[in-house]
Amino acid sequence: MGILNAAVWCGSAIFLTIGLPAVFSPELKKLLTAPGVGFAAEAVVARFFLLQYWCGGIALAHLLAEWIYCGRAVRRLHLTLVLGMLLIALAGGLWAQPKMNKLHTVKYYGPTTEAQSQAGQAFARWHAASETANLLVIGGLILYLWRVSLAPEGPRFGGFGKIRG
């Protein structure tokens, strides 16, 4: 379960970086217009963040289950890695994404040309920051995927005396 969760989590982050730019193809821009393509991308990103929350929660539950049922110590590095990536996802989805949605709307439908220009510049800065954070998360997710795919330390099956709680 841990490997599957880590693979989905990592794969979705890689898809967002590599696959989502396909939404901005000239064909879709003709069909949906530039603002429409942006709003479509925002819908995909909103679903992406929901998936990130679920995967982060499952990863925390997996670490807890390994500790309770298998008696494996939770390493500080692993816990920090999972919590860090989950916090970045929460910050992205609950703080940065709503701000970028507002900037995107003003960029195309703002009251003045100056407001549209300022919103476009601010949106570009926020987008660059979010892409940088996404690349950091991808690096962390590759490390986490590698960690959960390693054979566990110690015996796989133990007596019932190891079960805590």
Structure explained in plain terms:
It is a single chain. With 165 residues, this protein is mainly α. Helices cover 81% and strands 0% of the residues. Helix 2 runs antiparallel to helix 3. The radius of gyration is 20 Å and the shape is elongated. The two termini are 22 Å apart.
Would you summarize the structure shown here?
Helix content is 81%, strand content 0%. It has 165 residues and is mostly helical.
Structural topology:
Layout: H1 2-18, H2 26-70, H3 76-109, H4 113-149
Number of helices: 4
Low-confidence parts: none
Instruction: Give the overall silhouette.
Output: elongated
User: How many beta strands in the DSSP annotation?
Assistant: 0
What distance lies between the first and last C-alpha atoms, to the nearest angstrom? 22 Å
Overall mean pLDDT stands at: 89
Please tag this protein with its features:
0% strand; mainly alpha; 165 residues; 81% helix
